[in-house]
Description:
The chain is of the alpha/beta class. The chain contains ten helices and eleven strands. It has two domains: about 5-40 and about 175-270, Rossmann fold, CATH 3.40.50.10090; about 40-170, 3-Layer(aba) Sandwich (Rossmann fold), CATH 3.40.50.10090. The model has no long low-confidence stretch (mean pLDDT about 90).
Amino acid sequence: xxxxxxxxxxxxxxxxxxxxxxxxxxxxxxxxxxxxxxxxxxxxxxxxxxxxxxxxxxxxxxxxxxxxxxxxxxxxxxxxxxxxxxxxxxxxxxxxxxxxxxxxxxxxxxxxxxxxxxxxxxxxxxxxxxxxxxxxxxxxxxxxxxxxxxxxxxxxxxxxxxxxxxxxxxxxxxxxxxxxxxxxxxxxxxxxxxxxxxxxxxxxxxxxxxxxxxxxxxxxxxxxxxxxxxxxxxxxxxxxxxxxxxxxxxxxxxxxxxxxxxxxxxxxxxxxxx
Length: 274
């Protein structure tokens, strides 16, 4: 990217309120930042939260799953009364931090370490295996949909698995100004644009909107930062009809703020300094 950091335009597509320190740090580096959620998280009502003490293992698939569970459990109190015989598992370090902040005792936590490049269900199962944990009653707290792999794997290992959907993910609403900003950027300076993509569903939602706006072809000229190889594969699939060559400016990183900022600087070009 030429023209220095002032010409770089970063689009952060995480749900609202999930970008942490990233926007401020990028703006401090003279990048233009637009927060444009691909998906919106909507709480579901009418779901009773069971007693976690009835399970050997309760798995939380996201920070929002943690938030929703503890809003509903124990009258909205913190997790200081978490049953010591029940393990609370997280598919990533950031979700584990949310459990810790909610008050779940560290001795009850199981999660991939932050240094593990794989922050996913497979990494969690490796942790369960390493600790020789073989839960028989498992609750997975998640949205209305998600990857079936974890539940299937635990069931094959002999667990009875229940799912607790507490929220849904739907395409986010963009107002006219936000839509105009995105269209203008892709029509006039796509090579200077960087997109942070943090879920395969978000990639598909974004691609669908860009097709509707008639700028999907320009999107293929942008740079991208993704937090998992599956997200990269989904992006490649969505852009395949619009490209001749493979994406060249694509960075993979872990989902913590430091790694995301570093990856964005890396794809922005050699003039960027974290």
